[in-house]
Amino acid sequence: MRTNMNLLFYLKKRSTYKNGPVTIYLRFTIDGRRAETSTGKTCDPNRWNTQAGRAAGSKEETRVLNAYLDKLQSRAQELHQLMTSGEETVTAETIKNRFIGKAFQSRTLVAIFEDHNAKMKSLIGKEFERSTLQRYETCLMHVKDFMQLNYDVSDIPVSKINFAFIVDFEYYLRSVRNCGNNSAIKYIKNLGKIVRICLGNGWLIVDPYLDYKPKQNAVHRAVLTKEELSRIKEKKFSMERVATVRDMFVFSCYTGLAYVDVCKLKRSELIKGTDGNLWIYTSRKKTYILSRIPVLPAALAIIKAYENHPQCVVKDTLLPMMSNQKLNAYLKEIADLCDIRKSLTFHIARHTFATTITLNNGVPIESVSKMMGHTSIKTTQIYAKVLDHKIGSDMQKIIGIVD
After folding, report:
1. What class does CATH assign to 226-395?
2. What is the pTM of this model?
3. In the chain, domain spans
């Protein structure tokens, strides 16, 4: 129920008062009933403007005091708005108790979200990447803006998160923020993790996602054909740095390792397998899943070419990697020089390994999934784009068999 609240800062003199500073009190008035609490600040009565409810004057200490009182007033008004939107019982006494922290503090969405992000931040480099934290921080920003626009509040009790909240948030992302389908769904999933924390702790009883069934659009993932990859491999470059970038890219095409995994690849992770051949045994930085990858001749040739490179010797790594930004910039140049009409990025090498190198050459998807360090074959299926030449080759097998 909507209630009106009046706030008043005043000086409360004791009966024994003679002179000197007096404690400033804050009075809450709702429906004619009052409750008051000390602000913890004092002011000399001669410097107090009773009508304004603030200290008078332009000295620095006066400005600091008035700024503090302004902050208390804003906090009280925001708390009143939060309690009203949460359909709590709002009286002068209950809001005063909440204001001084005496009453039970209901769990709120932003507070829980911020706590989650703070914990995630402390685990960067251990369990999470900074890019993951950035996605959650961006999601929190969208949630705050959404609540301010739709409910005119900066936070909301978690008990108010329901199916309508999720649907309205999705609409906000698509309309106001102009997010594409998959971006909007990713933010909804980020919020879903916070909701699961609330459910697990018993702060939320009903799962608002129970009847919410979002669908991500299939993403077209660019890969290199066998011919395009050959063009890059065989191209002669006059600049050593460009040739090095090409080699790093080709290495990933034949191992399926992502940029961060190639960067941290140590010499000790090149191991002789039970079949007598060299294998790469490494844990993916993203999932911490162990990848076991047989080293194909093209990848082995690149490893040998850089085994005495100064950077590799000093850092004990297999390859002399540079920043992802520089790599991708050079790859654009390589694409132009090799007449490849695709936006070439380092991650395309991983896609190329999954399709052109493995799946389209008959390697079972289960084996590809293991080599790529995926936790589920469903993830591998995203990369598993069957190219036209594989379809044509498969169809040749039934010519003469079917009418």
Report:
1. mainly alpha
2. 0.59
3. 5-100, 109-200, 226-395
